[in-house]
Design a protein that fits this description.
Layout (H helix, E strand, L loop, with lengths): L4 H23 L14 H22 L7 H23 L8 H34 L21 H7 L2 E5 L6 H19 L3 E6 L3 H9 L7 E4 L4 H5 L7 H5 L1 H12 L17 E6 L2 E7 L9 H5 L6
């Protein structure tokens, strides 16, 4: 994977800064970490904090070699800076330690929160794009002719795909933030997808009435839908239940928080199987010509790329 130079340089700078700051804290006696309450030994606090900061500095140097692989170190570093800054702030406000420690809060904590957060967002997006590109041409041998499934409008997948490519979108449960994000993305890209001549068919795990109510919020109620509460169609397309890491791993939780708050896709009560992973398949003349299986619940496929049926010309 490519390592953008600015990420490497930022982590190297963070490493050097932390090591120098840690040494400074070890050598400092009363100018910083001046403890006002006798219950907290100043020497112990100073030495422990200094050694910890130096250790993180060394970790940042190592992480700079390949941050896309060692992204967890950046996460731990960011959490450490947020938690330590919050703890010092609380101690200062309570009068347990000197107000001089605002320098530590600002110098070793707050100033690194923004760059570390940006680095993590870039790393997550880079890794997500890398793994998703591997999925776009994942082969599928589903025999569409053996699937008698009809949509809510009484149409079969086979007949729908005879004249136009059909993008079959398998959704997660309707209470999922990622499912709501997917519906929002489909609503956004719908005009482009349909301009390519591709029809969108949604597959879900609840009754058609429930699906109508949810899809109507996104202006998608008029699309073809297939209700599959027994997940027979999910199994036919080899879409499996996710593992703990695929459903609740650290990356998934962070992405879920971002899409819920920034994307305004707040979660709700599960409507369907919460463990089911989604997927997208492009069907033309009864054949699956392109497919995408989610590696985690948080994956976000490029629907326009999937809808573009190059072999349908």
């Amino acid at each position: 994977m490519n390592n953008p130079s600015w990420i490497k340089h930022t982590l190297l700078m963070a490493g050097a800064y932390n090591i120098l700051w840690g040494i400074f804290m070890l050598l400092t006696r009363q100018s910083l970490l001046d403890v006002s309450a006798s219950a907290i030994p100043s020497s112990l606090l100073r030495q422990g904090a200094g050694l910890t900061v130096i250790m993180f500095g060394i970790v940042y140097f190592i992480t700079a070699v390949d941050p896309f692989r060692h992204w967890l170190a950046v996460v731990i570093g960011l959490l450490f800076k947020i938690i330590s800054s919050a703890l010092l702030t609380l101690l200062i406000l309570k009068g347990a330690i000197s107000s001089h420690n605002w320098l530590i809060v600002a110098g070793n904590g707050v100033i690194w929160v923004v760059p570390f957060t940006i680095i993590l967002l870039v790393i997550f997006e880079h890794n997500r794009s890398f793994y998703e590109q591997l999925n776009y041409f994942y082969s599928s041998r589903v025999n569409i002719e053996q699937l008698p499934t009809l949509t809510n409008k009484g149409a079969s997948l086979l007949l729908l795909s005879e004249n136009n490519p059909v993008m079959l979108v398998f959704l997660r449960h309707f209470g999922c933030s990622f499912c709501r994000e997917a519906l929002r993305s489909l609503a956004r890209d719908r005009s482009t997808i349909e301009a390519l001549g591709t029809k969108i068919v949604l597959v879900h795990m609840v009754s058609d009435k429930q699906a109508h109510n949810v899809t109507a919020r996104y202006g998608l109620a008029d699309l073809h839908r297939i209700s599959d509460p027994d997940k027979k169609l999910y199994r036919a397309f080899a879409l499996e239940s996710g593992s703990f890491r695929q459903l609740l791993g650290l990356k998934v939780l962070i992405r879920g928080l971002l899409t819920a708050i920034i994307g305004k896709n707040l979660p709700g009560m599960p409507q369907g199987d919460p463990a089911q992973l989604p997927g997208v398949f492009l069907i033309y003349k009864g054949n699956v010509v392109k497919s995408y299986r989610h590696h985690t619940a948080a994956d976000t496929p490029d629907y326009i790329l999937l809808a573009n049926c190059e072999t349908c010309l």
